[in-house]
Amino acid sequence: EEPHGAAPVDFLQELPSCQSARRRRGGTQERRPALLGTTGSRGAAARALPQERGGPPDRPARERPECMAEKRRTRDSQQVDTEHLSRWEKWRRTSSKSLKKALSEVKGLSSYLVLWRHDIRSIEGKFGTGIQSYFSFLRFLVLLNFIIFILMFSFVTLPTIISKYGIFNSTIAYISPKNIDNICTIYEPNGNKGLVYFYTYLKDLLSGTGFLEVTSLFYGYYLIDAVWISIMRYNLPLAYLLATFAYLALSFLWIIKRSVEGFKHNLVHDADPFQSYCNKVFAGWDFGITDPNAARLKHRSLQYELQTDLQEEKQKQKIAERSMEEKLRIYSLRILINIIVIAILSGCFYSIYRVTVFSQESSNDVDNANSQVNLLVQYLPSIVITSANFIGPLIFSFLITFEDYTPAFEIKLTLLRCVFVRLANIGVLLFSLWSQISNCGSDKCKPCGYNYKLYPCWESDVGQEMYKLMIFDFIVILAVALFVDFPRKLLVTHCSWKLVQRFGHKEFEISDNVLEIIYGQTICWIGTFFSPLLPAIATIKYFIIFYVKKIVLIHTRKPAARPIRASSSNFFFLVVLLIGLLLAFVPLGVSIARIPSSKACGPFRNFNTSWEVIPDTVLQFPTGLQQILFSMTSEAFAVPFFVILCIIMFYVIALARAHKRVVEQLREQLVLASRDKMFLIRKIAETQRN
Q1: Do 207 and 491 form a contact (C-beta atoms < 8 A)?
Q2: Structure pTM?
């Protein structure tokens, strides 16, 4: 018997969703009544659903998408059901609720411990989510460098310090190098002795030479082969190499994890812009906000996000309405600008190469010259590299304004152009150093395998170059803030000249600032192997830069005329950072596996290369374990492993496509449901009129 109030089948077949399904399935109507059913049957099925599950729903009542009356009924039914449970079941449910509540409170309290939480929220409210994403990105690098520092200090620096001071009954094991000429083992760092002038200490602090060269900051300090703590032998060369692999793997996995999260946000936004707009309008407000200042910041944040969406839609509409003449003009202009950009990049690369070669040749000829000239010659590559890094983005930011792209794409294209300037500069510098270390010609490298006369401890020399790049980059950032940004602000505020007012308040260039910190982070990744405490310097550097950039932003910059979306910016920042990390793999891999290690310093002085510590350690394992490891590195294991990885990859791709189809079907059902509602509203209105 049909329940009271059931809708006729003919009426249900008039719904837009039913007609759409009938058209999709070829117009068949035989199964429509059975599939659609009646209102009463749907209600009975809905009421029978919890009974089929065999108990109360797993989700708490307050998390269910129901009205308050339904939630109260669900809660009452749950309380009635718990009365018939055993004591063990009651205790288990009570303890589970208590644990969830405790974890929720701990999570809420931990949010107050987030670094710069209030500062970043304030920046988001005043300048939008695009600039807020830069400061969140800076916070991520501070935490990453701090963890890398803890890793290197715990497994490399701390055991060395403990062994040298004899703490915990520890002793040092030295192994004399075998089959090596004595001339290769001579390394006399230029430590300061006797009466030293203050400017000498300042020069050493800036260049990493002198008293800094013999400290734990650089590779040459770690001369220990093993540390004995009680009866345990600590293999320092193996720990040094594994710690290097660990911080690279940690950085890679952490960046990938954050990139996947940003990629999900991009997919949600790009899939349906209208849905993103509705989410901001109807579900963007946080009703848990009670503080007026926090509410004001949240209001400004939503305003900037909506403004960004409307700006991008306006730009897309403008692009769609372009005539053929406008398209030809814009494309011709873009081709011309790209030719200019390629010429600028080529000039930067050639200039850096020539200056680096000149500095390496001249610094070896001015050993007896005064210290000021020597310091200038040593810093000449850093000066030219930093000048190119500073001037290049300014030119690119000026040129891209004529190419008429969307704000988000402007940031991406400018970042890509600046990446080739900043990151390739490091590659040119390292290539020049390697050419001086390895390709020395004649018989200079024959006894040791490298140019031991100029570079008795070449790892420390490379570490000093990375140290100088990082210090000089930090000095330039501070100098620009003090001597460029604030004087410009004073001139614009107190000078009424048209020439001065024409420049006006400068906007906060996100692409340029992001490239600054990605450039510094790439230097840190490369230099940590040659200078284990370099991440500590990078942590302090980024910590200070956060406050410097915040002060510059608040007092000397103005909000962007075209706001930038944070979700797409965050994802692209991490992609560029990943490019920097992959670039760091190349010089580190060459240094570890190809270039002979120094025989006068460092933990790898008894090995031809740093990588040889791995097979040497494996040969000390039991025979069965050795065979397992050797079989895992053979072709018989690699080929099936690669095939299995391909199968898994194809399965994941197929699963992703299936999920995508399900999402599209659910989106269609939502659209059809809204059409059904409009259809029913019109039917009710017609019934009332009749």
Answers
A1: no
A2: 0.74
